[in-house]
Amino acid sequence: MPGHLVDGLCALRPVVRSLSAALVLGCVALAGIDRAALAEEMPEYRLKAAFIYNFLIYTEWPSGGGSSLSLCILGKDPFGAEIDGLQGKVAGGRSIVVRRNEPVDAIRQCQAVYIGPSAMESLPRLLESLRGQPVLTLADSPGAMHRGVALNMALAQGRVSFEANLQAARAAGLNLSSKLMRLATEVRQ
């Protein structure tokens, strides 16, 4: 192999390594792989942030949404710096912007809203304010999917999983990929 090709391939190693790590993270998140062995490297909310990233990738919003995709976090933020890794990543051709502590009346400007456990008491009011808006609702609270949240994560026996409410997603004008739906533990039609 010519020397300039070898040099070029060697220069790509760090990029390939980074892409491989991102791919593994995405696959771990979507496959719900037992994270017990990864516990030190992959705390719960880092895994959940990876799930959210995949949710954003595998959701189709109506056209004309602009160049950025706002992910808003309502209630106390359980992610901390873990969710900041999504800042600037691309999903559906749009750059992700993470926003915290948005007032309830401003969430209509978000494309995805994570409703933290501390905000679940106001869930009916939040969902009513989003009715008919193209906003993906996300949570990690027991029963949230049955209460109208589109995607709800859970942690059981060291594994992150999720359930999907297709009715809620469709009512918001969103299309959740069949690839994503195959991995859900429960799908509400």
- Look at the structure and name the CATH superfamily: Response regulator
Strand order in space, largest sheet:
3-4-2-5-6-7-8-10
- Radius of gyration, Cα only, in angstroms? 18 Å
Number of helical segments with 4 or more residues: 5
> Quick one: biggest sheet?
8 strands, mixed
CATH hierarchy class name: Alpha Beta
Instruction: Note the overall shape.
Output: globular
Structure description:
By secondary structure, the chain is α/β, with parallel strands linked by helices. The protein has a single domain, classed as Response regulator (Rossmann fold, 3-Layer(aba) Sandwich), CATH 3.40.50.2300. It is built from five helices and ten strands; from the N terminus they run H-H-E-E-E-E-E-H-E-E-E-H-E-H-E. The protein has an eight-stranded mixed β-sheet. A two-stranded antiparallel ribbon has the order 1-9. Strand 5 (112-115), helix 3 and strand 6 form a beta-alpha-beta unit. Helix 1 crosses helix 2 (44-57). The longest helix is centred in the first third of the chain and has 29 residues, at 3-31. It is globular and about 40 Å long.
